[in-house]
Automatic annotation (TrEMBL):
Single GO MF descriptor: RNA binding
GO aspect biological process, one term: RNA modification
Entry protein name: Pentatricopeptide repeat-containing protein
NCBIfam families: PPR
SUPFAM superfamilies: TPR-like
Gene3D superfamilies assigned to the protein according to its UniProt record, in alphabetical order: Tetratricopeptide repeat domain
Pfam families (UniProt xref): E_motif, PPR, PPR_2
Keywords: Repeat
Repeat among keywords: yes
Record has Repeat as a keyword: yes
Gene: LOC100806937
Organism encoding this protein: Glycine max
Length: 522
DNA sequence: TTAGGGTTAG
């Protein structure tokens, strides 16, 4: 039996993925006089945008339809709104729609249009349009408004206002608000809104856990992750990516391993994000072999995969391996192009390996070959590299040639180099710069006092300490931690609060004694 | 056809 036209079109579209097939079908429909009917035009545009990702051709079809309806506008605007690069096209087509009449926008189209708002005033203007069109009480539209406002700079107040005025808040609108607070770094408010939720699903947990880890609240993120598992919400790929990031920052290898097991048992090992996060976690926790193994297993190594692996090696001073991975990336990385993060890792690797010339060379390569404008991070690495090598004239030339103001890392790196090489004159200069940037940082003043001590300038030492006492700004002590049996133990300098301090010192002294014996030192 | 969540950097 011959299929009817409707079935034939749908069948052809579902089986092909080539523009040529689409064109043949279009020609066929034209001969039958159906190419511009709303139903078939809609199908063609959806196929073009969703299957072929060919927005240019979709627009061509769209522009040749003599009378457009709301569905066709929605299809085209949705496609534009799906990618940031085409957001301006979405917005301009939507404005065109508002000017032409009819067709009028329906409530389905506003959430898509709202996704494209680059700044607060665009969201406000759409908000006004929503009110004018009478869709301002549709919960989905209100949720889209909350989300859109919370994503534009300075829009959180409006997001909160819309959210507070909503009479029918869903788990989605709550989640949008949680993310909104997290985005501006207000973890406390994010936790509060999360606490007010009656229903929670996986994305809402993810929003809060991501909010914590993105704002450096790693312990809190881990606690929430444990609670999520305890309350029988099944973590998905997004959850484990956030939790792994927290594990890496906290050095929690055991939990990281448990998550790795969970990833395998739950079919998440094919997610490139998850694999990259595993590489990063193992690398930060010092398991370089495991990091490498996971990296090698990833069949779709993207930019982040390569960067994470390079950073792992750089972090542990394995500069040769980091450079080897970089070369592999450039030569056989499947067209993956290094970015600014790659070069931070690479320069770090050179710093830790004392490879000054190579570091310079990569810095040049980044600018000349890849056209990447050096960021403050790259300058920080370069100064660190030169400072450690005692090449202070060159380091100062780099500082003078910077296109931005040197930050604490730049001066701090220089100061470190000065300390190693006994350049007290330059150390004084760098320490003063650090104090200029952050006058309330006691650590910088202590560094300056130490430099004066080296120079025998005792009056200056007393002056610095006087200021320190007046400001009451003492140095935040450095801290390290180790994980034993799933418990993290923290240690501060001179801290004897651990109940096993005495035993720890006995072991430490025996280790030092052993080292001295081996090294032939007294 | 409509709304929320993700990794890497001194």
């Amino acid at each position: 039996m011959k299929p009817n036209l409707n079935e034939h079109v749908l069948d052809t579209l579902s089986k092909s993925n080539h523009l040529n097939h689409l064109k043949q079908l279009q020609a066929y429909l034209t001969t039958l006089g159906h190419a511009h009917t709303h139903f078939y035009a809609f199908k063609l545009i959806r196929f073009c945008t969703l299957t072929l990702s060919n927005l240019t051709y979709a627009r061509l079809i769209f522009d040749h339809i003599p009378s457009l309806n709301t569905h066709l506008f929605t299809a085209m605007i949705t496609a534009y709104a799906a990618h940031p690069a085409t957001h301006p096209s979405a917005l301009s087509l939507f404005r065109h729609m508002l000017r032409s009449q009819p067709p009028r926008p329906n409530h389905f189209i506003f959430p898509h249009a709202l996704k494209t708002c680059p700044e607060s005033c665009a969201a406000e203007s759409l908000h006004a349009q929503i009110v004018k069109s009478g869709f301002h009480e549709y919960p989905v539209v209100q949720t889209a408004l909350v989300d859109s406002y919370s994503k534009v700079s300075g829009g959180l107040g409006n997001a909160k206002k819309v959210f507070d005025e909503m009479s029918d808040r869903s788990v989605v609108s709550f989640t949008a608000m949680v993310s909104g607070f997290a985005r501006v770094g207000d973890v406390e408010s994010a936790v509060r809104v999360f606490g007010e939720m009656l229903d929670r699903d996986v994305p809402s947990w993810n929003a809060l856990i991501a909010g914590c880890t993105q704002n450096g609240a790693f312990t809190q993120g881990i606690e929430l992750f444990r609670r999520m598992v305890f309350e029988c919400n099944r973590p998905n790929g997004v959850t484990v990516v956030c939790a792994l990031s927290a594990c890496g920052h906290m050095g929690m290898l055991q939990l990281g391993r448990w998550i790795h097991g969970y990833v395998y048992k739950n079919g998440l090992a094919f997610d490139s994000f998850v694999l990259n996060a595993l590489v990063d976690m193992y690398g930060k926790c010092g398991s370089l072999g495991k990091a490498r193994k996971v990296f090698e297993m990833n069949p779709e190594k993207g930019l982040t995969s390569w960067n994470s692996m390079i950073n792992c090696f750089a972090l542990h001073g394995q500069s040769d391996s980091a450079i080897a991975i970089f070369e592999q990336m450039v030569e056989g990385g499947g067209g993956v192009r290094p970015d600014e993060v790659t070069f931070v890792g690479l320069l770090n690797a050179c710093t830790h390996g004392g490879l000054v010339e190579k570091g310079y060379w990569y810095f040049e390569m980044m600018v000349q070959e890849y056209g990447i404008e050096p960021q403050i991070e790259h300058y920080g690495c370069l100064i660190d590299l030169l400072g450690r090598a005692g090449r202070f004239d060159e380091a100062m030339d780099v500082v003078k040639g910077m296109s931005m103001e040197p930050d604490e890392v730049v001066w701090g790196s220089l100061l470190n180099g000065c300390k190693v090489h006994g350049r007290t004159d330059l150390a004084e200069f760098a320490a003063k710069k650090l104090i200029e940037i952050d006058p309330h940082n006691g650590g910088y003043r202590i560094m300056l006092a130490n430099v004066y001590g080296e120079l025998g300038k005792w009056d200056e030492v007393r002056n610095v300490w006087r200021t320190l006492k007046q400001q009451k700004s003492y140095k935040v002590p450095g801290c390290s931690w180790i994980e034993v049996d799933d418990q993290v133990h923290q240690f501060y300098s001179l801290d004897k609060s651990n109940p096993k301090t005495e035993d720890l010192y006995i072991v430490l002294e025996s280790l030092v004694g052993f080292r001295n014996e081996v090294m032939g030192e007294p």
